[in-house]
Amino acid sequence: MRIIAGEFKGRKLEAPVDNRIRPTTDKVKEAMFSMLMPYIDDAVCLDLFAGTGNLGLEALSRGAAKCYFSDNSKSSLSLLKTNISKCKMDEYSLVLPGDYERNLARISEKLDIVLIDPPYMDGLYDNCFKLLREYDLLKEEGVIVCEHSEKVDMADEVFGFKKIKEKKYGSIILSIYVD
After folding, report:
1. What angle do CA 104, 149, 107 make, to 5 degrees?
2. d(Cα 50, Cα 139) in Å, to the nearest integer?
3. Is 144 helix (H, G, I), strand (E, B) or coil?
4. Per residue in 33-53, pLDDT tens?
5. Mean pLDDT over all residues of the chain?
6. Which are the contacts of 41, defined by CB distance < 8 A and separation ≥ 6?
7. 144 within 8 A of 177, measured Cβ to Cβ
8. Is the pLDDT of residue 179 over 80?
9. 3-state secondary structure (DSSP) of residue 16
């Protein structure tokens, strides 16, 4: 697992030793960030269900100004902090340990990019959208990216957020939403 573009291109990230964390593959990550290029410069991002921090660190490497990283797993948080340090991104990173619902309530600024990559079959997507709407966290020109399994059907509209793009990569789908 590595940063694939930007300031830290080629930087290797610490990977999990078991299957509890499922890092986004380079192929899917490259496709995701190709779609995000118009939004990335100086963006404030949220890597919800951050795991290793793979996605948020890629955003920072490509020019995002700041990234919130949220996860509730102690092993994920340990990997995340190690990877943030390896990329020397401590001053641009805010690690929010704990439950995603509580962490969304803790964010006090509007976000340009929200990356949602939860455990696929836990049914968390709708609640993430509900809370993003309730706390009014997405900037007017912001974007939400959901990485999900082909077994998870993402509606064309969720709590007023509209799907503008969907791309399939093997069994993984990226769904892009705007307000």
Report:
1. 10
2. 21
3. strand
4. 999 999 999 999 999 999 999
5. 92
6. 63, 64
7. yes
8. yes
9. coil
Q: What is the DSSP letter of 156?
A: S
Rounded CA-CA distance 140/66 in Å is: 18
Position 163, amino acid? K
List the beta bridge partners of residue 147: 174
**Which tokens sit at 68?**
């919130």
Answer whether 0.85 is exceeded by the pTM.
Answer: yes
Burial (CB < 10 A; 0-12, 13-18, 19+), residue 129, is: buried
Give the contacts of 112 (CB within 8 A, at least 6 positions apart): 39, 43, 44, 45, 64, 139, 141, 142, 143
Tokens of 166: 């969907």
**Identity (one letter) of the amino acid at 173?**
I
